[in-house]
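Two folds, back to back.
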Amino acid sequence: MVYGNELKSVLLGVRPETLAEAGAVSEATVREMAAGALERLGGDVAVAVSGIAGPEGGTPDKPVGTVWFAWAARTEAGTTLHSELHRLDGDRDQVRRQAVAVALRGVLGT
């Protein structure tokens, strides 16, 4: 798990400009996280998740329950990258559990 923005940049190659312009909870960031994990850590599939589980931290543009997902996979045809935005309901624990389920469904579908 890479939680802090500095680690997202250092370990996964997320550009500081992406974090500054789009924020940690954004499509651009999770796409760079997933692509960076696949490239830097190896393997055939990588998943990235970034969201606001609550109870605080939400904004009108990104309310609690906003979660971005990205999946990167190596295939015979090359690398694929897919991202999705989900608005999950519930308390912090419920949002986190739902996020795990979405992430795993995405891995199974890659």
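---
second:
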Amino acid sequence: MEGREFLVVADHLMHDDRESFLRSSIGRSYYAAYLEARSFCERYLGFIRSSSSREHQIVATLLLGFDPSVADTLRFLRRYRNTADHDIDVSDGTMRLTTDRARRSAELVIVALDAHAAQLDAERGERESSREG
């Protein structure tokens, strides 16, 4: 399973106006982006999982050195998720706005990581073919 599959769940949840569904949608959006970012870091940046809650910060820090915009967006998503999970005093209007932002932000992270992966794979292929030739 890929992390991006959680975007489908986020989409379904965000179409229900109940606050609990909106909050859950934010969490799924974050995890879609985070899991894709973690996989990217494993494949391209040498990250090794430790099953620690610190992984979230480590992944964002690794991305900061690679693409600060993606790292910042992932950090904002984590803040959105923390708000959705822990701050019960947020208004419905703010929660709806945050749900929309989280969903769009998660997609931006995934699209950017896909573009980086394609570029890195192409560069790797070019290096390998030049060694063979």
